[in-house]
């Protein structure tokens, strides 16, 4: 409930109305929501600001490398919600409505009113193309480099105390002459052209102690071997098998490598067959017959000819107008005749 209250500025009454909107007759769920809101009030979480502050204080130690010590707990809470909660949504209101719906669906599942969703269903998965993984590797390497430089600078700052100087701010001044058309006098105007930061030796020393090729070495090793060397795992379930040798038996076989999509090496050793099933949701997206025999059967698939993997949603605002011009009639324009007696 802390996260729910941190995502919206609504009062408790409005939050309860949204939380029980799909289950108005469920008194048990209404009592659960009331109890959670009461516990928040007992802890002093009465509005959005106090909820963000409480979350920021509790999780600051876990993300101290990504937030500055000068940032208040409220800003830390906002950062945590932005990068950890429903990251596919940009608006806090959308995240609030999503969590409200998920909570109501969870209580319906526990009561046996709906079936459990299968994580093996293609509609709950997304395709990770090579560019995504390469960018994740580069980002992790850059973050490691910056964290090492930051720790060295902090160590030097504590050791030298007040004598520590990180950078000096200097202004480059330019003298500009402008002609005065009235008295033919030249007026000297002194103004700031552009600022320049002169970095101290501490910063240069901290950045210069990095090993050469710290960023590119890991990327070259990944492309050459297909093995991933990462501290955090990059949210991936495997650390090898990311690259294969392209077979040139014929042209179609070579081209099929670029249409292949693999579930992951993690599922190769699983004994269950649910991950290999062809589900109705895959129709039109994954070819039902183009999969090899043996161990990778059902795991190594190929997308259909009409599939295009995108990184953003297409603009479909003009689609209803186009369908109307082609002769499609909307359901709101259809009038049903009364049934004959």
From TrEMBL:
Family of this protein: Belongs to the RNA polymerase beta chain family.
The keyword Transferase is annotated on this UniProt entry: yes
Residue span, RNA polymerase Rpb2 domain: 2-120, 245-309
Entry keywords, A to Z: DNA-directed RNA polymerase, Nucleotidyltransferase, Transcription, Transferase
Keyword Transcription (UniProt): yes
Species name: Onchocerca flexuosa
InterPro entries found in the cross-reference section: DNA-dir_RNA_pol_su2, RNA_pol_Rpb2_2, RNA_pol_Rpb2_2_sf, RNA_pol_Rpb2_3
GO biological process: DNA-templated transcription
EC annotation from Swiss-Prot or TrEMBL: 2.7.7.6
Residues annotated as transmembrane: none
GO cellular component, one term: DNA-directed RNA polymerase complex
GO molecular function, one term: DNA-directed RNA polymerase activity
UniProt name for this protein: DNA-directed RNA polymerase
């Amino acid at each position: 409930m802390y996260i729910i209250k941190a995502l919206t500025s609504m009062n408790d009454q409005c939050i309860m109305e949204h939380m029980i909107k799909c289950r108005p007759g469920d008194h048990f769920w209404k009592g659960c929501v009331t109890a959670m809101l009461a516990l928040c009030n007992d802890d002093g979480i009465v509005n959005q600001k106090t909820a963000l502050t409480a979350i920021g204080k509790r999780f600051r130690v876990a993300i101290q490398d990504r937030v500055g010590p000068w940032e208040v707990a409220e800003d830390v809470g906002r950062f945590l919600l932005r990068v950890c909660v429903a990251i596919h949504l940009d608006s806090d209101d959308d995240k609030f409505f999503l969590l409200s719906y998920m909570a109501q669906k969870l209580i319906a599942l526990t009561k046996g009113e709906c079936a459990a969703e299968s994580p093996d269903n293609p509609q709950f998965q997304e395709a990770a193309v090579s560019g995504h993984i390469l960018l994740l590797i580069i980002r992790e390497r850059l973050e490691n480099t910056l964290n090492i430089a930051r720790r060295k600078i902090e160590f030097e700052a504590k050791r030298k105390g007040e004598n520590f100087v990180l950078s000096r701010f200097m202004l480059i001044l330019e003298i500009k002459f402008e002609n005065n058309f009235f008295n033919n006098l030249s007026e000297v105007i002194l103004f700031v052209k552009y600022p320049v930061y002169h970095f101290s030796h501490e910063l240069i020393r901290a950045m210069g102690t990095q090993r050469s090729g710290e960023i590119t070495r890991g990327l070259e090793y990944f492309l050459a071997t297909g093995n991933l060397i990462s501290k955090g795992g990059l949210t991936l379930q495997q650390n090898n098998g990311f690259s294969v040798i392209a077979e040139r038996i014929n042209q179609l076989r070579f081209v099929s490598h670029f249409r292949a999509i693999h579930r992951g090496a993690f599922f190769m050793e699983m004994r269950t067959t649910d991950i290999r099933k062809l589900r109705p949701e895959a129709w039109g997206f994954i070819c039902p017959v183009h999969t090899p025999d043996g161990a990778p059967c059902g795991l190594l698939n190929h997308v259909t000819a009409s599939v295009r993997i995108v990184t953003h949603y297409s603009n479909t605002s003009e689609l209803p107008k186009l369908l109307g011009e082609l002769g499609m009639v909307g359901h709101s324009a259809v009038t049903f005749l009364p049934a004959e007696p």
